């Protein structure tokens, strides 16, 4: 079973333009605080190309959705 703190597998590499506040907070960057007690990711994500919560394809920027197969995904 893959835990949420495991590094992504090559088939599930998020877009290089995906950003999150976890990148800037050392206590969160290690993945220890990624999910609340219900298992939901509470991080805010944004697209570094649009600088907003939506990607260039107008879909939400999120770790689960910014994956290979999305029209705007870049590795």
Please give a structural write-up.
The chain has 75 residues and is low in regular secondary structure. It has one domain. The protein is 5% helix and 8% strand. It has 1 helix and 2 strands; from the N terminus they run βαβ. A two-stranded antiparallel ribbon has the order 1-2. The mean pLDDT is 78.
Q: Approximately how much beta-strand content do the residues carry? A: 5-15%
Low-confidence stretches: none
Q: What does the overall shape look like?
A: globular
Q: In order across it, which strands form the biggest sheet?
A: 1-2
Helix content: under 10%
Structural class: little secondary structure
Largest β-sheet summary? 2 strands, antiparallel
Short recap of the structure:
By secondary structure, the chain is mostly loops. It has one helix and two strands.
Keywords:
little secondary structure, 5% helix, 8% strand
Secondary structure elements and their pairing?
Blueprint: E1 18-20, H1 26-29, E2 45-47
Antiparallel strand pairs: 1-2
